[in-house]
Design a protein that fits this description.
Layout lengths: L3 E5 L2 E5 L5 E3 L4 E4 L6 H7 L9 H16 L3 E4 L7 H5 L3 H11 L3 E5 L13 E3 L1 E4 L2 E4 L9 E3 L4 E5 L2 E8 L3 E3 L10 E2 L3 H4 L7 E4 L5 E4 L18
Parallel strand pairs: 4-5, 5-6, 6-7, 9-10, 10-13, 11-14
Antiparallel strand pairs: 1-2, 2-3, 3-4, 8-9, 11-12, 12-13, 12-15, 15-16
Helix pairs in contact: 2-4
Length: about 230
């Protein structure tokens, strides 16, 4: 798979085209924002009906990534479930699937804003995890260093097509949403331009992980020309 490798505070990491993060030396795979149960949550609240396959699609992609990387440790960086009812209402088949994926692995659930109370599943529950110099949490904190987070679902456009992306600068790494049916926040949104330093990279997902300068202005933006003051 065509991942993009980079160094981050002493760790050699790989941004996978799927949106997963691989740390080969640690045998670790990190994913963020699975949002399992989103289709059912929208249906419960009277929203638009989505095909009820997002849990299957997301877990299939997660299983494929675990197998492809031979991960011994998995970190889910928060919002693994779309809301508490989605977590509690996980059907037995999906629950058993998750348990099988966890078997024999060190599995960490980071609490997110959508799922502060995680369901009764195996694994370790944390709000923050510090591992070999890196800090894993759900929402990036201003001023943090060597931080890996999620939450924002960043996306960037290339050739007119918007794609989920990683965001990377010298201090932090933000993962894209891994789950099916998850929306995204454009890189030029002030919430992201205010977090990421000038010179940050966007690493686009898709057929291959593609690094590019992080877009900081909306597509088609044209800076107004300076005009001479009247004399």
């Amino acid at each position: 798979m065509n991942g993009h490798g980079f160094s981050f505070h002493g760790a050699e990491l790989v941004a996978r085209p799927t949106g997963a993060l691989h740390w080969p030396a640690a045998g670790l795979l990190a994913v963020s924002d699975l949002h399992l149960g989103k289709a059912l949550r929208l249906a419960r609240r009277g929203g638009g009906l989505l095909p009820p396959y997002e849990v299957t699609e997301t877990l299939t992609r997660l299983q494929d990534e675990i197998e492809a990387t031979a991960a011994r440790r998995v970190i889910c960086l928060g919002d693994s479930f779309d809301d508490p009812a989605a977590a509690a209402g996980l059907d037995e088949g999906a629950r058993l699937w998750l348990v099988r994926l966890m078997a024999g692995r060190d599995w960490v659930w980071i609490a997110g804003n959508h799922d502060p109370a995680l369901p009764d599943l195996p694994g370790t529950r944390r709000s923050v995890l510090r591992l070999d110099g890196l800090t894993f949490r759900h929402i990036a904190e201003p001023g943090a260093v060597a931080e890996v987070s999620g939450h924002y679902h960043p996306k960037a456009a290339l050739a007119g097509r918007s794609r989920p992306c990683f965001l990377l600068d010298g201090a932090r790494l933000i993962l894209p949403a891994f789950g099916a049916y998850t929306g995204g926040l454009a890189c030029h949104d002030p919430a992201l331009t205010g977090l990421m330093a000038p010179g940050a990279l966007a690493i686009l997902t898709g057929p291959r992980a593609l690094p590019m300068p992080m877009p900081r202005q909306a597509p088609g933006y044209s800076r107004p020309r300076a005009t001479r003051s009247a004399r």
